[in-house]
Design a protein that fits this description.
The chain is mainly α. The protein contains 18 helices and no strands. The protein has one domain. α1 crosses α2. The radius of gyration is 21 Å and the shape is globular.
């Protein structure tokens, strides 16, 4: 016979206790996000990078027990809320407006990059999950994809370290190619629409795509931005596929008495927001608010991950993970550029 649920007053007391325990660490992560966001607005550059630079040096301080509940909440719950709200950035019209050629190009580039990343990870003797994590981050939308994929991968001793390495790596490489690829597009004589498809299909993070695209002109910037939104839309099926694979691999654990992971709530919310936003019933101010809140959540989560990660452990990863990230960056650029030239 099932035990009766505790009275609401007892539940409320438990929530208050958990909130009080989480307040110091969560407040510190939010404060770090605020400083990072302010620095990005004042100096320029990605807020995620500043959040990392603020969070990493605090690792020694935040190891104390009083900080841990809130930092854990920021690194998981706030992260998942931020990923869910990413759905407000995408509509079906944005995707369909690109036409079949760019859609096929993005599908091949995203799936091809993740597949090759897994093979390269095995060749470099790195965990398959790390290949999925970095390949998905490179192929889809940089740091945001790394965080979303990390949230559904099985957790292990080096989970936070690997996630942070992927975030740092794709953010750095995205900034590098933002500078290099417009010159390459000019050197190859690409038309504005071709250059937009190349930039939007190969640069990792949204901000860097926008920067590189509009650097070359409005026509290139528009195509680059919509192409990038299509890659962001791939986050839903890719994370769903990873979730299903993880669930299948967990069947043996279920047979031994464990629990098979279900479909994450934030993935359902992401899909729902894409559908609702596509219908056009959400006021623009509300959409803008959700996009802004999503950015705040992701920056807060990155700051928290930095506080949980040892720089010594990051440095001890060696050159193979960096080699994998660089190779993935080259792979997606080659795949997209080949498709651009083939489409003419």
């Amino acid at each position: 016979m099932a035990e009766p649920a505790p009275p609401f007053s007892a539940q409320l007391t438990a929530w208050r206790i958990r909130a009080a325990a989480a307040a110091p660490g969560l407040g510190l992560a939010v404060a770090a996000a605020a400083v990072a966001t302010g620095a990005a607005a004042w100096i320029g550059g990605p807020a995620i990078l500043y959040a990392l630079l603020i969070g990493l040096p605090l690792y020694g301080v935040t190891r104390a027990g009083r900080w841990q509940p809130g930092i854990a909440l920021a690194g998981r719950g706030v992260l998942r809320l931020g990923v869910a709200l990413l759905g407000a950035r995408i509509t079906a019209d944005q995707i369909l407006a690109l036409g079949p050629g760019p859609i096929v190009t993005v599908l091949v580039a995203v799936l091809g990059t993740i597949g090759i990343a897994v093979l390269l990870a095995r060749w470099l003797r790195l965990p398959i999950g790390f290949g999925v994590l970095t390949g998905g981050a490179t192929a889809i939308c940089g740091a945001s994809a790394a965080l979303a994929i990390s949230a559904v991968l099985p957790r292990h001793a080096d989970h936070e370290r690997d996630t942070l390495f992927a975030v740092v790596g794709v953010t750095f490489l995205s900034t590098v190619v933002m500078v290099l690829y417009p010159g390459l597009a000019v050197l190859l004589g690409l038309r504005p629409d071709q250059a937009g498809l190349f930039l939007g299909g190969s640069i990792h993070d949204v901000a860097q795509v926008v920067g590189a695209g509009y650097m070359m002109g409005p026509a290139t910037g528009d195509v680059a931005t919509f192409t990038k939104m299509l890659r962001v839309a791939m986050l839903l099926p890719v994370v769903l596929a990873i979730t299903l694979v993880v669930a299948r691999l967990a069947r043996a654990d279920r047979a031994a008495g464990g629990r098979t992971p279900g479909l994450p709530w934030f993935l359902i919310a992401f899909a729902a927001l894409v559908g609702i936003n596509s219908v056009g019933v959400l006021p623009p101010a509300l959409v803008d608010g959700m996009v802004t809140l999503s950015g705040w959540c992701l920056v807060t989560a990155i700051a928290a991950l930095g506080m949980k990660t040892s720089l010594k452990a990051m440095a001890g990863m060696g050159l193979r993970p960096l080699t994998l990230l660089v190779a993935e960056t080259v792979v997606i650029a080659v795949l997209v550029l080949a498709a651009v030239l083939a489409l003419g």
